[in-house]
Amino acid sequence: MTAMEGLPSPDEMPHVAARERTTRKKLPIWDRIKFLLLFTIAWFALVWSSMADNPILPFPDAMREMARSGKGITIMVLFGIEVLRQLHFLISEHWSWYHRLWTQGIFGGIERLSHRMFSDWTRFRLIRVFKWLVFIAVLSLVLGSVLDTTPALALFQIPALLWSAAPMFIQVIFILFIAVGQFAAIFWFLSRGGVEVYYPDDVKTRFSDVWGQDHVLKRVRENIVHLENPEAIEAKGGYVPGGILLWGPPGTGKTLMAEAVAGETGKPYVFVDPGAFINMFFGVGVLKVKGLFRKLRKLALRYGGVIVFFDEADSLGNRGALAQGGPGFPRGMSCRGFSYMSNDSQLLLTRQSMVYGGGMGGGGGMGTLEALLTELSGLKKPRGFVNRHVRRTLGMRPKPPPKYRILVMMATNLPEALDEALLRPGRIDRIYKVGYPSKPGRVRTYQGYLDKVKHELTDEDIDKLAVITPYATGASMKDMVNEALITAVRDGRDTITWRDIIQAKHLKELGPAEDVEYIERERHAVAVHEACHAVAAYHTQHHLAIDIATIEKGSGYLGMVSNVPPEDQFTTWRSHFESDIYVSLASLAGERMFFDGDSSSGVSSDLEQATAVATNMEGVWGMGSTVSSYATSSRLGVGSPGGAAKGEKNDVSARRALADRIEDNLAEMLERVAAILKENRRQVLALAHALETHKTLTGEDVIAVVEARPGSLVDGSLYADDAFIAELEAYHRAALTAHRGHAKLAVALPARPEPIPVTVNGAEPVPSDLDIWRRPAPPPSDQ
For 710, phi and psi rounded to 5 degrees? Predict the structure, then answer.
């Protein structure tokens, strides 16, 4: 078989076909007869018109009269020309020499001559002029035959004919205008709104008003430099970045940063509402997009630049998978909240409990996002009817558009929901994460908001407040300071104290306490439950600090212990996850130990959380006896770690082996945390008593009770008295008896003894004003 055998490549086929064809391609039957049929119909239509004007005129006489008239002669001439054209095509389809004569000889010679004499653009214009002349000549012949005059005079009668027909055309145009105008008015009315324009004097925000996001602010300043002095980069061959995406959790200052950009530059600030492009009718969103950018171009030319800000930009396109956000997780009933866990454990459990949805409809409907993408990338195209069409008709090149200085800023907390075409360079050139402020950022933010009110907080207090609010946003910090001020005003003061800040923090994080009271034995059981969590956290969770412990019933919990990281940290180790499991299992171990093997249903969520973390440690994170990832192996269909392929018999045994390893690990950890609680039984009873007395304790007071020393609001030194601890043991035995018999607790909660002398450095007594903290602190009036 030679290389020439077989079918040619697709690129070679047109050339092969061109070399092999020596005759014209045959015309379809319709293309051959359509004009002949048209002229025949026109002939008989005119004959019928003559017979209608003269009813006694017979058909043969009408045919002869039409043949002698100018109209008939014109139709016959056109008919004859079409017959000749079709004969020419027919001969070219059957005789190759005739086809070559016309294509390569006559027409080919004219084509070669025109290529030598004129450019392609000139040839195009000459052909267009020739077509117009042919059209005018045919029109003059037809009008001359219809008006019974010469073709030249018929052309001059065209204005008179148009004027006589003007009333009818005006009526038609008026009807169309009314019909179309109704829809145009509706769409114009629906396309209003959703866009607010703020001029330079309207925006008072400056960069000095944005706190806690210095690293992002530094990058945004670069865009301002390029916006105000674009020649600095364009003269070197670059271009000015025209789009910024700010993404991150809600309340971190994305909108405030956009306002500061407008305030610093003195340019107009255009705010686009998230629902501006969500409309009922198809096409309204497209009109809004085009109207928005028309306004932006005018403002950019007038003021030398403009900033447009799209808030909640994920509403522009179809929503994809939910973005990974920060914490802010729901709390369960009883002690089923997991706020005592590290941030990574909380994030893991929350992701597993969430249903990730994809493909949900979003945005302003079909065409809106596409119109926005076109406008973002089409700012460099020629614009205007005269510039684009009139100049091109006159053979002139359209003028390039001016350089519109438009800075597009978008904000979203769902960056993964945005269309990839929207995020490409040229539309959105820079993407910055506006995350939770670091500790220095939180300190600066608290200082900024506290400077606006009267307060008694020291620098150490503000530093401590920044530590115990690790994931606070600018909005939440502002709200906390405002809530503390409301608390102070409610008490008849105008100065914020540390107690006001703590009460505001408890209210915002826990919500208002429900107006319910536990019965004595249930109150004691909840207090022991939470005390076991807190004591286990104190002895095992060294990477976290206790923030809050409470037994006040809220809308979603009976009690809880919350921990916070004392410093910004970005890695989590095996020991951290193990301590999270210890704290989770402390409730079950403590209830079994203090209630003679009995336990409540309140530990169910604790066990669920401990199992989830232990499963990932053993099968995903490489913190167990296996190295491969169980989740990946299951997803790829290759079986469990150490097991057979999916579908084989021993795959089930491998899965059970994984479950057995998890159960063994949890049982071993349960024994360890039970030993910790048994060793520190005194601390559990002391902390349970403090919780029953005060209902809610801060982290400092929890540590003060555990270490039996004075705290900031609660004096824990009284729990150093062995006699008082004995009273607590007796109270617990009475509560246990009431629990077994489902009876009323006969013994009252032990009262605190008189304050014992406490020394500092072994010599000086503690000032007597600390006694005010030894009295029971009343719960906040709003809880």
Answer: -65, 140
Q: What is the CATH number of the domain that holds 264?
A: 3.40.50.300
- Residue with structure tokens 């923090």? 505
Region of poorest pLDDT, from 182-191, 353-362, 672-681, 713-722: 353-362
C-alpha closest to that of 261 among 423, 408, 377, 403: 408
Mean pLDDT of the chain: 78
Q: Which of 433, 452, 469 finishes a domain?
A: 433
CA atoms within 13 A on the CB side of 217: 20
Whether residues 256 and 118 fall in one domain: no
Per-residue pLDDT tens digits for 294-339:
888 889 888 888 889 988 888 776 544 433 343 333 333 334 455 5
Alpha helices in 541-649 (DSSP H): 574-594, 604-619, 630-636
Residues 398 and 483 in one domain: no
In this prediction, residue 294 carries a pLDDT of 86
Query: pLDDT digit string (tens) for 539-562?
Result: 998 888 888 888 887 766 778 888
Q: What is the DSSP string of 318-358?
A: -B-SPP---------STT---TTS-HHHHHHHHHHHS----
Residues 85 and 99 in one domain: yes
Task: Write out the residue range of the structural domain in which residue 603 sits.
Answer: 519-773
- DSSP labels for 446-497? HHHHHTTS-B---HHHHHHHHHS-TT--HHHHHHHHHHHHHHHHHTT-SSB-
Do 159 and 256 lie in a common domain?
A: no
DSSP-derived letter for residue 104 is: I
- The pLDDT value recorded for residue 140 is 82
Helix (H) / strand (E) element for 756: namely none
Measure the CA–CA gap between 107 and 114, rounded to whole angstroms: 10
665 with 577: CB under 8 angstroms? Answer: no
- Looking at the fold, whether 492 and 559 belong to one and the same domain comes out as no
**CATH number of the domain residue 491 falls in:** 1.10.8.60
- Is residue 621 located within the same domain as residue 685? yes
For residue 405, the surrounding DSSP H or E stretch is none
Question: Is 336 contained in some domain?
Answer: no
Distance between CA atoms of residues 375 and 30, nearest Å = 45
What is the torsion angle, in degrees rounded to the nearest 10, for the CA atoms of residue 49, residue 53, residue 56 and residue 62? -40
Q: What span, in angstroms and rounded, lies between the C-alpha atoms of 274 and 290? A: 17
Q: Please choose, from the candidates 390, 717, 416, 346, the residue with its C-alpha nearest in 3D space to the C-alpha of residue 564.
A: 346
Beta bridge partners of 431: 245
How many Å apart are CA 712 and CA 468, to the nearest integer? 15
Beta-bridge mates of residue 578: none
> Among residues 549, 508, 577, which one has the least CA distance to residue 703?
549
If asked whether residues 673 and 761 sit together in one domain, one would say yes
Ordered DSSP codes for 606-619: HHHHHHHHHHHHHH
pTM recorded for the entire structure:
0.59
Q: How does DSSP classify residue 247?
A: E
626 CB neighbour count, 10 Å cutoff: 19
What residues contact 216, with CB distance under 8 A and at least 6 apart? 246, 257, 432, 433, 434
| pLDDT (average), residues 506-524 | 79
Q: Is the pLDDT of residue 746 over 60?
A: yes
